[in-house]
């Protein structure tokens, strides 16, 4: 078994570490890197067995190719690797949006290739191979969106790999995926960014920052994420994200009115949100 990982950042590096630690199918793991220092560190950490700086050499003879790159870079990667993919090989990705990825895969990959779109619902505010960890995917939901022509055996292989990462596979359609993650993943990212932007631009920020504690830190954590990766998320899921921003704005305006009117209903609104969150935490636990 030869497994190629294109992109050895937080996600790609963590995939390599987890699969090497599990010794999944005794696979040889080859990583593609653009910078020598990233490759050297990946080898030192044990995330890969060897590194390549040529995309075509990376995927040559690979049974499985995992693309862990920024979303808008994946189209070009598909184009570059398509001629060198082995017949009946499996290609998957880790991108945070799926509709665009599935379209590109259909358009650019050979029909005999088994494409299974993927998205692990896990991450950190830090990025790069230094932030990678074998436990990143432990008990996380890992979304899978198989292409229509992907063979059932190939889908089972990807599900097995996901389980070896410690994650829980969930098969979901691309459109449904993008709509749902826009609310629970992409919207929180932009809310975090908006809070940082609003507060740090305020003339009193220097004094205010001395008072910012755990609440501010927790709510702004996502703003520390990789700007390139996050920009690609926004630009590949525009309609769903804008829809959720509009819905959130309406809810914020409702709360604004309750506060401005000194309404006793504000406590009820807070209690309902508290209850809803506790139910969600209980289901997760």
Can you give keywords for this protein?
2 domains, Rossmann fold, 8-stranded mixed sheet, 285 residues, single chain, alpha/beta, elongated, 12 helices
In summary, what is this structure?
This protein is an alpha/beta fold. It has helices spanning 10-22, 36-45, 55-59, 71-81, 99-108, 152-164, 174-200, 205-208, 214-219, 227-236, 238-260, 265-284, and strands spanning 2-6, 28-32, 50-52, 64-67, 90-93, 114-120, 141-146, 168-171.
Give the arrangement of secondary structure elements.
Layout: E1 2-6, H1 10-22, E2 28-32, H2 36-45, E3 50-52, H3 55-59, E4 64-67, H4 71-81, E5 90-93, H5 99-108, E6 114-120, E7 141-146, H6 152-164, E8 168-171, H7 174-200, H8 205-208, H9 214-219, H10 227-236, H11 238-260, H12 265-284
Parallel strand pairs: 1-2, 1-4, 2-3, 4-5, 5-6, 7-8
Antiparallel strand pairs: 6-7
Structure, described:
The protein has helices spanning about 10-20, 35-45, 55-60, 70-80, 100-110, 150-165, 175-200, 205-210, 215-220, 225-235, 240-260, 265-285, and strands at about 1-5, 30, 50, 65, 90-95, 115-120, 140-145, 170. α1 (about 10-20) links the parallel β1 and β2 (about 30). It is α/β, with parallel strands linked by helices. It folds into two domains: about 1-170, NAD(P)-binding Rossmann-like Domain (Rossmann fold, 3-Layer(aba) Sandwich), CATH 3.40.50; about 175-285, 6-phosphogluconate dehydrogenase C-terminal fold (Orthogonal Bundle).
């Amino acid at each position: 078994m030869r497994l190629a990982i294109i992109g050895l950042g937080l996600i790609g590096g963590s995939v390599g570490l987890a699969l090497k630690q599990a010794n999944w199918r005794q696979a040889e793991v080859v990583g593609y890197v653009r910078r020598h220092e990233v490759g050297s560190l990946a080898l030192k950490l044990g995330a890969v067995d060897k590194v390549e700086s040529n995309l075509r050499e990376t995927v040559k003879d690979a049974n499985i190719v995992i693309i862990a790159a920024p979303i808008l870079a994946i189209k070009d990667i598909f184009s570059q690797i398509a001629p060198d993919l082995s017949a009946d090989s499996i290609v998957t990705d880790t991108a945070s949006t799926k509709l665009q990825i599935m379209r590109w895969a259909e358009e650019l990959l050979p029909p005999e290739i088994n494409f299974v779109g993927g998205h692990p619902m896990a991450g950190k505010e830090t990025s790069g191979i230094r932030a990678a960890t074998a436990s990143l995917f432990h008990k996380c939901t890992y979304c899978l969106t198989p292409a229509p022509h992907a063979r059932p055996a190939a889908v089972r292989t990807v599900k097995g790999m996901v389980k070896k990462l410690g994650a829980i596979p969930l098969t979901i359609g691309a459109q449904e995926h993008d709509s749902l993650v826009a609310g629970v993943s992409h919207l929180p990212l932009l809310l975090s960014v908006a809070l940082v932007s609003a507060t740090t631009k305020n003339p009193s920020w220097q004094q205010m920052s001395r008072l910012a504690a755990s609440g501010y830190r927790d709510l702004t954590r996502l703003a520390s994420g990789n700007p390139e990766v996050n920009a690609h998320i926004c630009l590949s899921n525009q309609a769903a994200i804008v829809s959720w921003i509009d819905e959130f704005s309406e809810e914020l305006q409702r709360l604004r009115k309750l506060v401005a009117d000194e309404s006793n209903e504000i406590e009820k609104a807070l209690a309902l949100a508290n209850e809803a969150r506790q139910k969600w935490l209980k289901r997760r636990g």
